[in-house]
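From the methods appendix. Each design record in this collection lists the tokenized structure first, followed by the designed amino acid sequence. Records were kept in a plain field format so they could be parsed without special tools. The example shown here is representative of the layout used throughout.

RECORD:
FOLD TOKENS (320 positions):
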């Protein structure tokens, strides 16, 4: 008999008590049609403060396909993805949101494409942003444009974290142990062949998005500073330009004083110039500070997450 391949579904959850069971039902439905594959659902409870963990445990009692790992506090979705993929024991691992915004109906196609062996990863991107605020869509698109210009990382518009990968890709991803994790960038960084599937945007089943506008803005800046040195180069460029201008002014003022003497005038313009240059200096220092802060976070080598509870035994972990 042909050996059955196993798919691990990694699902980060943060305060998603209403979605846990609904999600599993949909998955079970889709996977029952996937006759040649076994599957496991690996919930990562990212320090939820509601009944998320209780819901997961209840589900796990009745079904051995349900695995979970619970964090000691909220470490963020990126940490949850890392933990989940680390514990995934399947031949293939897929990353999905628990709010069913990532249509499970794509899973069979993803598995088939991986089976064909032409790629190491199948990712999904949404072709529209139905149900999303206009301002958010606008800034989101702009971010990806700027990101593509500033970095070598190519993230297509509307790309989600939703993807299925084989062990080769997964092990590559796990080698990236950095603390500042911008997963979309990391997924691109590992390379390999990726096939993109397209789908229409799905609205959240229950609850609200965990991302406020400001959280998203901070996340995008994080992404840029993690994957690009261009801001530092720009800061250096501005500095060089102003040095040159200052030198030019020095010569002009010196020559003028020699020719026409030195009447005391031009106080307002002096102040303006001082203020402007001071401002630019602080701006550039800020950019430098961003890199320093990132470096500081990395050299501390703090763990990406801390586990409080899990039903994954260490034996399986070793195999994985
Ligand atoms: N999530 C998480 N930790 C967080 C924030 C979110 O694990 O700190 C999970 C969340 O439970 C969901 C997924 O990440 O499964 C995506 O979050 P959300 O749906 O809020 O984001 P959106 O789909 O709006 O981008
Ligand atoms: Mg969502």
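DESIGN:
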């Amino acid at each position: 008999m042909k050996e059955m391949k196993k798919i691990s579904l990694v699902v980060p959850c943060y305060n998603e008590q209403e979605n846990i069971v609904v999600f599993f039902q949909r998955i079970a439905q889709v996977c029952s049609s996937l006759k040649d594959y076994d599957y496991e659902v690996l919930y990562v409870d990212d320090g939820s403060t509601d009944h998320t963990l209780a819901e997961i445990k209840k589900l796990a009692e009745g079904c051995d396909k349900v695995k979970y790992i619970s964090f000691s506090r909220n470490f963020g979705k990126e940490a949850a993805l890392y933990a989940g993929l680390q514990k995934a024991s399947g031949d293939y691992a897929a990353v999905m949101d628990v709010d069913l915004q990532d249509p499970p109906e794509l899973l069979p196609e993803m598995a088939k494409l991986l089976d064909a062996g032409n790629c190491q990863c199948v990712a999904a991107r949404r072709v529209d942003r139905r149900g999303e605020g206009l301002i958010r869509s606008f800034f989101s698109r702009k971010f990806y444009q700027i990101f593509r210009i500033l970095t070598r990382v190519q993230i297509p518009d509307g790309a989600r974290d939703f993807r299925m990968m084989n062990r080769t890709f997964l092990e590559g991803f796990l080698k990236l142990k950095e603390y500042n994790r911008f997963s979309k960038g990391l997924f691109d960084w590992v390379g390999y062949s990726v096939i993109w599937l397209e789908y229409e945007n799905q609205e959240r089943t229950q609850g609200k998005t965990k991302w406020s506008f400001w959280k998203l803005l901070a996340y995008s800046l994080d992404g840029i500073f993690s994957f690009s040195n261009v801001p530092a180069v720009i800061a250096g460029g501005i500095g060089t330009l102003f040095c040159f201008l200052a030198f030019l002014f020095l010569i002009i003022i010196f020559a003028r004083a020699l020719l026409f003497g030195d009447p005391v005038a031009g106080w307002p313009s002096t102040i303006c110039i001082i203020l402007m240059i001071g401002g630019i200096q602080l701006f550039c220092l800020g950019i430098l500070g961003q890199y320093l802060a990132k470096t500081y976070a990395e050299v501390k080598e703090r763990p990406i997450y801390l586990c409080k509870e899990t039903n994954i035994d260490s034996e399986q972990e070793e195999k994985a």
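APPENDIX NOTE: The longest strand covers residues 5-13.
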